[in-house]
Write a structure and sequence with these properties.
This protein is of the alpha+beta class and 768 residues long. The protein folds into two domains: 408 residues, Alkaline Phosphatase, subunit A (3-Layer(aba) Sandwich); 168 residues, Jelly Rolls (Sandwich). Helices cover 22% and strands 21% of the residues. The strands form six sheets. It has a ten-stranded mixed beta sheet with strand order 7-6-5-4-8-1-9-10-2-11, with helices on both faces. Helix 4 runs parallel beside helix 7 and helix 6 runs parallel beside helix 8. It is globular. It starts with 41 loop residues before the first strand and ends with a helix.
Length: 768
């Protein structure tokens, strides 16, 4: 009561007790705590990165995944579940229940081209699952890949309002970037702070994330015995670079010697037997790429190399399953498994990023300019026994990606089924027991936006009405909880998809696809049509037989596109790399002192990418030993260090090493000049006290995603650039008096365009 409170008093609004001038005349009051309903289940979403539809055993794969299979045997597997063709859009749709363009993620979170559907920031008016579950009294945890913060907002000085903890998670551990290495991750964040890493360790990231997730659960239980939790476990595996534990790789030795043609056919046989695909499903021959050779056309050396690539990939998938198995075992140990909803899925289809022959130089695959030199580094030879380990940043060939996506055509980045058709398993023993005779297979259409409303409905929770004081707008997903309980329940009827210039629409039992923009927006010749019930692999275009359906679905797509902020469509480079003018401030000179945390990847790239630059090192005169500066890792980078009375410059061109040393006992100022040459090459000159002591010509320029680990001063701050030096000295902290290292960006190269992928190259990758 506030009737005794005089006018002008402040701070008593909303108080439910009685306030007088003395406590003896007053009544205390406490607001009711926010609690989950009694018996509310825990909720765990396990999201794998770039894993194809058929890789796990419940969906036809031969990879040993008993934990996923056990969930499927006890729960439900969806044969007709779809994500978006890329990671950020799928994650935004999963967490908000809104279509990706409405959630601001029409593309991956690397640049803001200045349009509403591509802001690369989750709108405040769309609460995340974490925000909704928190409002319902849940603890909220996340481990792994975020990729929902614009890359220009991930550095240490950035506004953190789009970071996981600010979007509803009580705890977070992982990498916020699009990917990282599973050995020596380039940048890990705990809650809101960067984790200082010791690169001397050989921890495997999948296992470390599992440790962190279990520790979060145990930390909650030590303090709150019955509070339910929501855990979003977003694996960095199996995104490239693909790496795995040695014992897991050894387990698959020889498993893929028969080649991708046979493995693909065997997977389809198992899918048909399991009721996931209809009898008579045809594998679309050469529909995804003409440059994938038949296995029997390869020589023995190529077969051995390509098989090893797949052995590593299978081991990485196996590692994800081991992680799930550990998590399930822990839930059983603490007697919480039966009342935990577990979802297992992938963010998009398997990827052909490795190219037709695979690569052991993964970061160089992100460069597709027309005027690259003929000897551009695409694949640095490595011993087969090193593949999958910390020294090799590799990825399997496109032939294996086609196997991952069995029986579908195309890959990640495409609106054909291979890019968007992903596995989905849902399990909740206490709340969704299988009826006698129910095989658990669900064939109705479902989309990734449907996960959020489904999980909230199953948990008996409500979507947050507001987030951070902003009123929530409606989401787009439709709960498929009814389909879990009734195999005959209908699936979603319609859904649009869009990526840059690609368009697709599900409706009337058909799927219409326009793989590229034509001359006019309303040219129906751009559209293809597939009867998915009879032809789930999209092997036959029936557009000519159903022009009325094509016209209808194309018009539905247009209406949905305007309703979901899809326009404008990308017919030039702007959706890939146009940046706001505010990004230019990050290309100004920077002074870095020893002890400064490793500069974030994107922040570091603004100083060196596609331009000349100078690095100035100020010393006290006597040359000590140790790392002066390093930028990059085993995927590509450069470093300057002092060792045994010599100054050594090391350059790692995507795995190809160059070293040059000069003897010197003292130095007050070392200047390293990096000149951008024609044909994406560099000249490097090293001056010691104004005397030129070293010159290296025609070094391949590090572009695309390299250097990946950011700039470190006074010690090696992440994955090592020079592996042999790392084996000798580890982080190799500098022993002398290093005052500072200054980066001075110079002129941009004449071919400097923010987007290195030509339009025709994009089309070649996304179309058949």
């Amino acid at each position: 009561m506030t009737d005794r409170i005089p006018d002008g008093a402040r701070g008593y609004d909303g108080f439910g007790g009685v306030v007088a001038t003395r406590t003896s005349q007053s009544t205390p009051w406490w607001p009711a705590p926010r609690r989950a309903r009694a018996g509310a289940p825990n909720v765990i979403v396990v999201l794998v990165d770039d894993m194809g539809f058929s890789d796990v055993s419940p969906f036809g794969g031969e990879i040993d995944t008993p934990a996923v299979h056990a969930l499927a045997d006890e729960g439900y597997r969806f044969a007709n579940f779809h994500a978006t063709p890329l990671c950020s859009p799928s994650r935004a749709a999963l967490l908000t229940g809104a279509n990706p363009h409405r959630a601001g993620f029409g593309m991956v979170a690397h640049a803001d081209p200045g349009y509403p559907g591509y802001r690369m920031l989750l709108p405040r008016e769309l609460p995340t699952l974490a925000e909704s579950f928190r409002e319902n009294g849940y603890a909220t945890f996340m481990v792994g890949k975020w990729h929902l913060t614009l890359e220009s907002l991930m550095h240490d000085g950035a506004d953190r309002s789009s970071w996981p903890v600010q979007r509803g998670f009580d705890r977070y551990f992982g990498s916020m970037d699009g990917f990282t290495t599973l050995y020596h991750p380039h940048r890990l964040v705990r809650d809101n702070s960067v984790v200082a890493e010791d690169p001397g360790g050989e921890d495997y990231l999948t296992d470390r994330l599992t440790d962190e997730a279990i520790a979060m659960i145990d930390g909650l239980r030590a303090n709150e015995a019955s509070r339910p939790f929501f855990l979003y476990f977003a694996h960095h595996a199996v995104h490239g670079p693909v790496q795995a534990k040695p014992e897991d790789i050894a387990k698959y030795r020889g498993a893929y010697d028969a080649g991708w043609d046979r493995v693909r056919a065997e997977r389809l046989e198992r899918q048909i037997a399991a009721g996931l695909m209809p009898a008579g499903t045809v594998l679309p021959a050469a529909a995804d790429s003409d440059d994938i050779p038949r296995w029997d056309e390869l020589d023995d050396e190529a077969r051995a190399l390509f098989a090893r690539h797949m052995e590593v990939y299978a081991a990485a998938v196996d590692g994800v399953d081991q992680s799930l198995g550990r998590l399930v075992a822990h839930l059983k140990e603490i007697d919480e498994y039966d009342n935990t909803i577990i979802v297992f899925t992938s963010d998009n289809g398997g990827t052909a990023e490795g190219g037709p022959t695979g690569t052991r130089s993964y970061f160089s695959q992100f460069v597709h300019a027309a005027d690259l030199p003929r000897d551009w580094v695409r694949d640095v030879e490595r011993p087969l026994d090193e593949m999958g380990g910390p020294r090799v940043h590799g990825h399997y060939p496109a032939g294996w990606a086609r196997v991952s996506n069995t029986p579908f055509r195309q890959f990640k980045g495409s609106l054909y089924e291979g890019g968007i058709h992903t596995p989905l398993v849902v399990s909740w023993p206490a709340g969704l027991p299988r009826a006698v005779g129910d095989d658990g297979v669900r064939t109705g259409f479902a989309y990734i936006t449907d996960l959020a409303p489904t999980l909230l409905e199953l948990a008996g929770a409500t979507r947050a009405a507001e987030a951070a004081g902003v009123r929530a707008e409606d989401a787009d997903g439709e709960s498929f909880a009814a389909a879990l309980r009734d195999s005959g329940a209908p699936g979603r009827a319609d859904q649009y998809l869009a990526l840059v210039g690609q368009r697709a629409y599900f409706g009337r039992g058909f799927k219409a696809v326009a793989p590229a923009l034509g001359q006019t927006d309303d040219d129906l010749r751009d559209w293809r049509l597939y009867d998915l019930a009879a032809d789930p692999a999209e092997s036959m275009d029936v557009a000519a037989e159903h022009p009325d359906i094509v016209a209808d679905l194309a018009e539905r797509w247009r209406v949905a596109a305007w309703r979901n902020t899809v326009f404008p469509l990308g017919d030039d480079f702007s959706l890939f790399g146009v940046r706001p003018a505010t990004d230019l401030e990050y290309s100004q000179p920077v002074t870095i002192r020893p002890g400064t945390p490793t500069l974030e990847r994107w922040r570091s790239a603004r100083l060196v990418s596609l331009r000349s630059f100078v690095v100035e090192v100020d010393l006290d005169g006597d040359l000590g030993e140790g790392m002066l500066f390093s930028h990059g890792d085993q995927g590509g980078g450069y470093a300057l260090y002092a060792e045994a009375g010599a100054l050594v410059f090391a350059y790692n061109a995507y795995g190809r090493m160059t070293r040059s040393a000069v003897e010197t006992a003292a130095a007050r100022r070392v200047v390293v000049r990096f000149a951008a040459l024609a044909a994406f090459e560099r000249e490097v000159v090293v001056e010691v006290d104004e005397d030129e002591r070293m010159r290296l010509d025609r070094l391949p320029m590090l572009i695309g995603m390299a250097p990946f680990t950011g700039i470190s001063v006074g010690a090696d701050g992440g994955g090592p650039v020079d592996w042999e030096l790392f084996e000798r000295h580890g982080r190799f902290p500098y022993s002398g008096d290093l005052r500072s290292v200054r980066y001075v960006p110079g002129a941009t190269a004449p071919y400097n365009h923010e987007v290195m992928v030509a339009v025709d190259e994009i089309s070649a990758r996304l179309m058949d």
